[in-house]
Amino acid sequence: MRASTQHVQDRLNQPYEHQSTSQLPIGTAVILAWLAGAMFMLSLAPYGYWIIALISPALLYALLLGPMSNKRAFIIGEAYGMGLWCVGAFWLYTSIHDYGDIPAPLALLAIAVMGLGMGLFHGFLALIFNRFVGKQPLAFAALWVLQEWLKTWLFTGFPWLFVGYAFTEQYWLSSLAPVAGVFAVSFVAVLLSASLVDAFRKRAGYLVVTALFIAVSIGLWLGNPAWTQPKPNSENIKVSLIQGNIPQDLKWLTDYRYKTLEIYATLSSTEWDQDMVIWPESSIPMFQTEAWPFITEVVKVAKQTDTTWVTGIPYKDEAAYQQETDKYAPFYNSVIALGAQADGLYKKQNLVPFGEYIPFQGALDLFPNLAGSQDIMSYSRGPANQSPLQVRGHNLGSAVCYEVAYPDTTRRNAQNTDFLLTISNDAWFGTSAGPLQHLQMVQMRSLETGRWFMRATNTGVTAIIDHTGKIVARAPQFERTVLRGEVQSRTGMTPYVRFGNTPILLLIGLMLVLSYLGKRSFKR
Predict the structure, then answer these.
(1) Which residue in 235, 247, 164 sits closest to 447, CA to CA?
(2) Which one in 163, 307, 353, 515 has a CA-CA gap of 20 to 30 Å to 264?
(3) What DSSP element (H or E) covers 389?
(4) How much is the average pLDDT of 326-335?
(5) What's the pTM value of the predicted model, to 2 decimals?
(6) Is 259 part of the annotated catalytic residue set?
(7) Exposed, middle or buried by CB within 10 Å (0-12, 13-18, 19+), for 484?
(8) Both 197 and 213 in a single domain?
(9) pLDDT, tens digit, for every residue of 480-504?
(10) Residue in 316, 356, 401, 519 annotated catalytic
(11) Is 519 part of the annotated catalytic residue set?
(12) Residue-range definition of the domain harbouring residue 312
């Protein structure tokens, strides 16, 4: 009887732990894993082949099945992650080489090092999948979402290349976004991809579970629940988004900054009959203390025409300067509301490492004789839970540049708002896919929050997005132009805005615990 029981347990666990399979040579497996990660880029903007977002994780899942050493699993996962980041985030090369004046070989090396570091997320995913949990789709999908979530905060975060973004306009799946965010979309997509592999291997049990999740998503799509509603007794706001198209290599030159102000003033001269005129990130390329005479003149025109003016500007907080303890007054990458029916200042919370601040900068104080160490200045981090801007009797939530890629930051900024704004300068990334991927993330944030989004940029992509993530107006890239349109005020909160990532994190936590316990019971 005891032998029979052991035989049943062995059979139950056979598909994932004791199945006799022939392994690919490690070199072949690494190449396939790298290619599987690299191909993922084709699922995102501007390509949009969402089916690749199912194929890519499926290939990694298939490569990790069967018995193998933890070392082999880690190497395969690391190779996948390196392919994912070296190709998917290759737009960083433009910033490093073209505008950072780094020689091409060193720039390529920097991309490789970045890919190696970011690949660790998938490396440890594969290691945990192989060592601690049962090799089945629910555990794989849960680990996948766990590593995506970690990228939003670990070491300040780099929240890019999530599976869920590939389904931003696939409403049969993206309808989960307002319920539980982009991670819920990623979870079901990866679960589907792994379940299809199992079905191909004649293990279709998890495909039934996946079908239930997809049925819920399709039901939400067809049912179209009104998570948010148009604000009562409120007319649409007429806006003009000004795209200055200032070349990145000229933008911060002292001799060009007044030319920049002239360009934006000229483009805006015909727009003061609108409700709002919006300039992009750091369109005023100097502190407000230096630009105050210019700001005063623009505010005067805005008030005369009953127009709200919103602009990006580096903001120096001289009131917070303490001469006894501070080297200089703190300053912020900010967006400010001025002119008619306007008030408020938003300070960017998620800063770009080495671009806007130096990590561990305080350590430089230990080396006072290091040349230039006392002259390094960093933006300060804005506080969490800032009040929204006040514009024309509405609450406007803000995000500056790539912090819109942080789901939870945008969720918090969206609370108690009527519509949202992100300002950006993607000129750093030239004609690469980076700005288009960035726009796709804004679409997902609209879906998650049930709010209209305005995106004002220097070189593009300037756009207006509705509460379902659909682009309703878009300016061409790399043109000096104005995008005119209307935005709708909305009230109410989606489940995601109300509860955040807690539901999906509880779900994946439960999946991992059950999978761990199940694997332990099979080994007894």
Answers:
(1) 164
(2) 353
(3) strand 389-391
(4) 86
(5) 0.91
(6) no
(7) middle
(8) yes
(9) 999 999 999 999 999 999 999 999 9
(10) 401
(11) no
(12) 229-493
